[in-house]
Model the fold of this input.
Amino acid sequence: AHLTAQQSLYADWARRLWRFPILLAASLGMSLSNAKAVAEALLGRSSPFIRTPKFNSVDSSGSSAWWRSRYAGVSLKPIVLVEAAMALYLTGGLLVLFWATAWGAIPFQILFTLGFWLVVGFTLRDAGLIRATAAVAARVGEAPKDGPGDSRPRGK
Done:
């Protein structure tokens, strides 16, 4: 389906094919979160829709200080630990497959391993970015940019 869509949408579809394994790996890496969501739905548990942080967005006051928004309180969920454990487990499995010279299984194991590491890596990166930016903003006191009394050097 993805190949057909690329062929019908883009003349240079063949040049875009290298992205497909990354898409597939990321989809596999999200399987644990998706399975959790399905299980919660089947058990009748309502779970809140948690919007992903939007960077470079502007609020109603015209401020782009997203660290003051509702996203700033984002904390790591326990499922991240399970995803990290799966990533480590799959990495071990990949090493075993190399040791066993199971060449046919290695590409599939690479997709699973890469997928879980992608999900864990992006989750940790986003959580760290949110915390780091909020800490810097608190330290700086959110001084106005290029306003009166602004002693910071001006860049181009």
